[in-house]
Design goal:
The protein has about 210 residues and is mainly beta. It folds into two domains: about 20-115, Immunoglobulin-like; about 130-210, no CATH class. Helix content is about 10%, strand content about 35%. The radius of gyration is 23 Å and the shape is elongated. The protein starts with 17 loop residues before the first strand and ends in a 6-residue tail after the last strand. The mean pLDDT is about 85.
């Protein structure tokens, strides 16, 4: 895919300030990036975080869009540490960042490329730790009435040894023919992560879902 180029020569940048974007923590669905400025004070930052394969602009064009705030998914922050979540594991991301000085003049952009990874240990039902870590689910009808269509709610209560759990709801065809490792990776990657007890988690059910 050809990258879209742009001429940013007409833009004015604060060349005295240098930025550094450093990954301090990288998980399966979340990254923490520390932003450091030297040579001057940065009041706030603009950034774009995107899957690399979905980004059609070269670096100069991206720098111009950040400097002009000329793109729909540009974010702005005063924080010196970015926490970006809801990422997909095994997907390469590009983070583009520039700063703004006291007069609103942009610095030069820095780029950070990273790939969230999923490192999991599968525990099967015959392992003693299965029952000690397995959360309790209540309120979910079993089975769901044959012709029911509407919202379904349930509560989740984790055990003392369960520090985090993931919830993913879909039709059973999504889970067919997957071995335990594939299934676990699928749920952790696409599901929602929770800590502690949760009440009234819900989803919309239709008969075709056949949970």
């Amino acid at each position: 895919m050809a990258k879209i180029e742009a001429n940013t020569k007409a833009l004015t940048f604060n060349e005295n300030i240098s930025l550094k974007a450093e990954i301090v923590k990288l998980g399966a669905k979340e990254v923490t990036v520390k932003l450091t400025a030297t040579g001057g004070e940065v009041k706030n930052y603009r950034y774009i975080n995107t899957a690399t394969k979905n980004w059609n602009f070269d670096d100069p064009a991206t720098e111009g869009k950040l400097a002009l705030s000329d793109y729909w998914n540009i974010r702005e922050t005063t924080e010196r540490e970015l926490v970006i979540n809801r990422l997909k594991s095994d997907t390469e991301y590009s983070l583009f960042v520039l700063g703004l000085d006291a007069e609103g003049t942009p610095t030069r952009m820095v780029k950070c490329v990273y790939t969230p990874t999923l490192d999991i240990k599968i525990v099967l039902k015959d392992n003693p730790s299965w029952n000690t870590a397995k959360p309790s689910i209540t309120g979910l009808p079993d089975p769901v009435p044959e012709y029911y269509s509407g919202p379904v709610f349930f509560d989740v209560t984790p055990t003392a040894s369960c520090v985090k759990y993931f919830v993913y709801v879909d039709s059973k065809t999504k889970f067919m023919n997957k071995n335990p490792e594939e299934l676990t990776k699928f749920i952790v990657t696409d599901g929602d992560a929770y800590e502690g007890a949760q009440k009234d988690l819900g989803f919309q059910y239709t008969p075709k879902d056949a949970l």
